[in-house]
Amino acid sequence: MKRIIIIGAGPAGLAAAYELCRTKDSKLSISLFETDDQVGGISKTLQYKGYRFDLGGHRFYTKIQEIDQFYKSFLGKNLLKRKRLSRIYYEKKFYDYPLTFMNALTNLGFLRSVEIVLSWFYRQLNRYKMEKTFDKWISNRFGDKLFHLFFKSYTEKVWGISTSKLSSDWAAQRIQNFNLFRAVLGAILSLDTSDVKTIIRTFFYPKYGPGMLYEELQRYVEKKGVNVYMNHKVTGLKRTKNKVTHVLVKDIKKGIVTHIKADAIISTMPFNELISLLHPPEKLTTQVKSLRFRNFITVNLLLKKNPFPDQWVYVHEPDVKVGRIQNFRNWSPYMVKKGGGLTPVGMEYFCSEGDKMWKTTDAALISLAKEELARIGLAKEEDIREGFVYRVKNAYPIYNFDYDGTLKLSKKYASNFKNLFLCGRGGLFRYNNQDHSILTGFFAARSVFSTDRKHDVWSINENSEFLEEKL
Question: Which of 217, 220, 306, 432 could be 14's S-S partner, Cβ–Cβ 3.0 to 4.6 Å?
Answer without folding.
Answer: 217
